[in-house]
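Revision sheet: structure tokens.
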Amino acid sequence: MLMRKTFKLLSVALMLLMTLQLFAQERSISGTVISDTGTPLEGVTVSNSTTNKNTTTNATGSFSIQASGGQELVFTYVGYISSRIVVGNTNNCLVLK
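Predicted:
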């Protein structure tokens, strides 16, 4: 009887750990950075503040970076105020000012 309870408890703990691991997996986050006038911005630095990975936007303002839910992306560009976005399950629009 004690062995069954222990097995069930370990099974539940293992399933919870596996679920947490799924949430922690990185995925590709992509988007376009534009100015407040709607112009795509080339050369914006996009950094994952948790992993220190970074990339820059291309000529059309597009970028792609690896990140997990809850991690913060920092967008910096000369002459503009830096912006921060927390990666979640929804799509965000970012306009640098």
